[in-house]
TrEMBL record:
PANTHER family registered for this protein in UniProt: PERIPLASMIC PEPTIDASE SUBFAMILY S1B
Catalytic activity, EC: 3.4.14.-
Ranges in a coiled coil: 535-562
Species of provenance: Chitinophaga caeni
GO molecular function terms listed in the Swiss-Prot or TrEMBL record: dipeptidyl-peptidase activity; serine-type aminopeptidase activity
Protein purpose: Catalyzes the removal of dipeptides from the N-terminus of oligopeptides.
GO BP annotation list: peptide catabolic process; proteolysis
UniProt xrefs under Pfam families: Peptidase_S46
Annotated keywords: Aminopeptidase, Coiled coil, Hydrolase, Protease, Serine protease, Signal
Signal sequence residues: 1-22
Protein name per its UniProtKB record: Dipeptidyl-peptidase
Length: 734
């Protein structure tokens, strides 16, 4: 009896949890009608699934692009104007900058089409059509097939299918596995290659708060930049040409300047990169108890040293700003992930879920025959993989954060290319490498790298067991008294790779000589010893376990879908187009603390620190604030909105994604998540997981009032969806 009641209680807990997390999920746009439309409408959506994804007419999806393959962007005018984040456009903005015209520091605004700046290599990819090709891809695949044979057969099936796919010559076909390889989807895409920079605010707006505020709420960052998609005269994708024309898109997003309120329905449309929502408990444990602590400890040590130098030395501050930001971005996210899983008892919830799964499986003979033991074996495999996975993380962090090792790597790669192309190609390959190295050394300080090496070598060798390091590297470590300082000092003193001048002099020797000399360089020798030891003792062993994990994870995924069949499943993010929806809502990060939904320019001024590299505020913006010169973009209370949060389920790659209102109008620009909720990649919890967006009114205000680029706002279509509603409400009140 008691057990029965307990079971009921558990089942209702599960259901409750499901209702509460109605906003979990990154859904495939072509399946919304089938899976989500009803719920989306119940939550407030006023359009239909067919308005979001439609192959017969222009729909919302035709305004969304994968921006360069690493971010999302959206078309916001009939002339191909593209909106994305400042941190997504960062590299382009940097590449156009010089000491004389520093667009990162001062911002950049093209006042006419001629001033828009081309960015070779940058792309914008539209999704033309999505098809489920699971049947064709998996034809002939048998249970228990050898993994290599399975992969080869699927590959063959897909290649055989491709010629029959209807598409234009200028379009591409991309196939992606979903649900760990239980399903396959095909994407017909159209990629534009002439993408020009149109506008960017200064970093003191676009990156306001920088690393201190990164992953944090309350946030006050105007994280946006503008580009324009250019096409050939026929409107089709074309390589850059001065006389290309602005794209006339199938659809562009109207912009609502009515603002957002608590509980408003929002959806975020974009290209999320990677999530792991269906791990077994030991897989999740490995991340939060093994991998995250390992990666965080290595980066912690590196960041402390770099920060120390940056605070003392103006030049180092400039040289290391971007590197520091990217190292700190992962570091901070992983800390949030560990803490979030712990605070929400994510592991306990996984274990409870597995208990329920196992109980149901055992009560169903047909399913039991298929899946008995799968979960236990999978958990056991994660335990077995654990030490190797963690050792791999330590190794990756060691070689990533000591830059000198990456110089050795580049040198060896270059020599390999010469080996392949013949000795005559040496000069050409050498020049190419020197060009790259010139750029790298511009932002390099040997004394910083050397100190980082001292700290990371000590940490690496004292933490990672010698059997994962290998004899040769350990030998070198022992020759140096097992001392990071001694090891690093020797290497940095004797290497020929630690400055551009030395590097160039080294490569100026005859190729035959270099071929031998390269292995005598202490940096390269040590790096190779570390790498060989790692490949033999960690990588190769782990790879075999990971193959087994992949296979069982696929079976476990299928089993979950059949056993927990009331649950609605969405495939893990894999850089394909997805839509997620939720509500504008605050949250409580800890006892007695409650966060509001939005921030204003008042908050920017509260954080303002004159001259600070994270919290300075440009004079012009301070003037606009003083005069409350906000134009039509202010809130009804007269304040200038800056950012807001909602319960949309997003991840890396969703940066630059549009936040849309119930009608599909643009209301915000996604750029981050809150720290307490970064665990959403493995453990989404609707109570505290929030995505962070720039309020679109702040974007327009900066373009119009701050930059004086009103002509860009004039290109857009501003709408007032709430105006219709307001008089009615006022009538009611009267
Ligand atoms: N945390 C955001 C994302 O994961 C923004 C990163 C850019 N900003 C920074 N300060 N690093 O990409
Ligand atoms: N900041 C991330 C990005 O660049 C978004 C996120 O992780 O929430 O894609």
């Amino acid at each position: 009896m008691l057990r029965f009641v307990k079971g009921l209680l558990f089942a209702s807990c599960l259901l409750l949890q499901q209702a509460a997390s109605a906003t979990e999920g990154m859904w495939l746009p072509q399946l919304l009608g089938q899976l989500n439309e009803k719920e989306m409408k119940a939550m407030g959506m006023k359009i239909s699934a067919a308005d979001i994804y439609n192959v017969n007419r222009g729909s919302l999806k035709d305004a969304i692009v994968s921006f360069g393959g690493f971010c999302t962007g959206e078309v916001i005018s009939s002339q191909g104007l593209l909106l994305t984040n400042h941190h997504c456009g960062y590299r382009s903005i940097q590449q156009h900058s010089s000491v004389g015209s520093n667009y990162l520091a001062d911002g950049f605004w093209a006042m006419n089409r001629q001033q828009e700046l081309p960015n070779p290599g940058l792309t914008a990819t539209f999704i033309v059509r999505i098809e489920d090709i699971t049947k064709q891809a998996l034809a002939g695949v048998q249970n228990g097939m050898d993994e290599k044979d399975r992969a080869a057969l699927i590959n063959k099936n897909i290649e055989a299918l491709k010629p029959s796919i209807k598409k234009e010559a200028y379009q591409d076909v991309l196939v992606k596995p979903m649900f760990e390889g239980n399903q396959y989807f095909l994407f017909v895409t159209q990629t534009y290659k002439d993408i020009r920079l149109v506008g960017a605010p200064p970093s003191s707006i676009g990156k306001f708060g920088a690393d201190t505020d990164n992953w944090m709420w309350p946030r006050h960052t105007g994280d946006f930049s503008l580009f324009r998609i250019y096409a050939g005269k026929d409107g089709l994708p074309a390589e850059y040409a001065a006389d290309n024309v602005p794209l006339s898109p199938k659809h562009f997003l109207p912009i609502s300047i009515d603002g957002i309120e608590k509980n408003d329905f929002t959806m975020v449309f974009g290209f999320p990169g990677r999530t792991n929502e269906y791990l077994p408990s030991e897989g999740m444990r490995l991340i939060v108890e093994g991998q995250d602590p390992a990666r965080v400890s290595m980066r912690d040590a590196a960041l402390k040293i770099i920060d120390g130098f940056m605070r003392e030395d103006e030049q180092i501050k400039i040289q290391y700003a971007a590197k520091y930001a990217s190292t700190a971005n992962g570091w901070k996210k992983w800390i949030g992930e560990m803490q979030g899983v712990e605070r929400t008892k994510g592991l306990d919830r996984k274990v409870a879920y597995e208990t329920e799964y196992t109980k149901r499986l055992n009560n169903n003979n047909a399913l039991k025959q298929l899946y008995a033991g799968v979960l236990d074996s999978l958990n056991a495999l994660y335990i077995k993989a654990g030490p190797y996975v963690v050792a791999q993380d330590y190794y990756n962090e060691l070689t990533r954060n000591i830059e000198l090792f990456s110089f050795s790597n580049r040198l060896l790669n270059m020599l390999n290319k010469v080996k392949k192309d013949g000795p005559d190609s040496y000069t050409e390959h050498k020049e190419l490498l020197l060009k790259t190295m010139k750029g790298i050394f511009q932002d390099y300080s040997m004394k910083v790298d050397q100190q980082v090496a001292v700290a990371l070598l000590d940490l690496y060798f004292s933490t990672v067991k010698s059997r994962y390091i290998g004899g040769e590297a350990y030998q070198i470590w022992m020759e140096n008294n097992k001392d990071g300082k001694m090891t690093a000092n020797k290497i940095f003193a004797l290497t020929a790779l630690s400055s551009y001048e030395k590097f160039e002099a080294f490569l100026d020797q005859p190729y035959e000589k270099i071929q031998n000399l390269v292995y005598q360089d202490p940096a390269t020798r040590f790096m190779m010893a570390l790498r060989n030891g790692f490949v033999e003792n960690v990588y190769n062993v782990n790879k075999d376990i990971q193959d087994e994990i992949d296979q069982l994870q696929r079976v476990y995924m299928k089993a979950q879908m059949e056993v927990m069949n009331e649950r609605r499943f969405y495939p893990d993010a894999n850089s394909t187009m997805r839509i997620t929806y939720g509500k504008v809502d605050g949250y409580s990060p800890r006892d007695a603390v409650q966060y509001n939904i939005s921030t204003t320019l008042e908050g920017v001024m509260e954080k303002y620190k004159p001259g600070d590299y994270e919290f300075d505020v440009p004079g012009k913006l301070r003037d606009l604030y003083r005069d409350k010169d906000y134009g039509p973009y202010k809130r009804s209370d007269g304040k200038m909105p800056v950012c807001f949060i909602a319960s949309n389920h997003t991840t890396g790659g969703n940066s630059g994604s549009p936040a849309l209102d119930a009608y599909g109008n643009l209301v915000g620009l996604n750029f981050d998540r809150t720290w307490e909720g970064t665990m959403s990649d493995i453990n989404y919890d609707a109570k505290i997981c929030r995505n962070i967006m720039v309020d679109i009114r702040y974007v327009l205000f900066i373009i119009d009032k701050y930059a004086g680029a009103k002509h860009l706002v004039d290109e857009m279509k501003l709408v007032h969806p709430k105006a219709k509603v307001r008089p009615m409400m006022e009538r009611k009140r009267a």
